[in-house]
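Chapter summary example.
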Amino acid sequence: MPQRSETVKIVRKNKDVVLTGREYGKQQTDRATVFLAGWAMRGDSGAFRRIGQEIRAMRPDDRVFTLATRSGRKGRFADKTHSLTEFLAEEGVREVTLMGYSEGATKAISAAMEIQNAGMVIDGIVLSSPLGLHDRKFLTPSLLGAMFFAIPVDTVGHILKHPKDWRAFFSALVAGLAVFRGVGEEVLDQKRKYIPQLRRDVREMSQKNPERDALDVLVVVIAGEKDTVARRNSLQKSVDEMRENGAPIKMLTAEKLSSHGLPFLRPRTFVRSALGSLDRMKREKGK
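The structure predicted for these 287 residues follows.
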């Protein structure tokens, strides 16, 4: 069982960006493992508590954060990643492992480049059910559906196939509620500016991250076989392109736990598979 470490809530807010999260334990080290949440989710949500605890168990010598950023009333995508870099620098972090889920994956790609430019070291990146690896049509039903209903809908399919897996149901329920809570907070915060911001968010999530092909760090991509949002076939093509461009990258496909909510359905399996693969890649690179 993962150790139930004390958590510290993190909230930083200005006109450009809102950063929320939790730190799990308080290690005296300059190494950190950071999990970046998906669209509209808060980093301090209870949906990420098990994930944070499992990372802490796997990386007991690291500082462990679950973080999320969203635009403030005048913010842009660049502000979201810049705030992450600023936060880590202020915390004295010098070496980082990034884990990004859904929209958090494309943030992880951009943040990796900015973190390196700030003089910190990226130990590796995990991209789970990622957006940002390839272009997709703007405002597609799959993307719009993903933003609000992918986690519960995909999980219903999982429950129908595995009717005894009630843990998955409750995990997905918490994650789904976290999305709707985040949307409600953004609507209240931005009011009439919310719809234009929503359009910008959708546009950013529907485009390939321009910094994807510049990644020069170890990358693990995790895809669900039946993920309705980050579709495995499209991700495989992107991974093949990145590998041809020289990126040290590996892709894992989840078959039995195949929905967009994979990290919530089985946090221990997700964390151990992701970080374990990254560690193996590091050992192979060192040979």
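To summarize the output: The mean pLDDT is 81.
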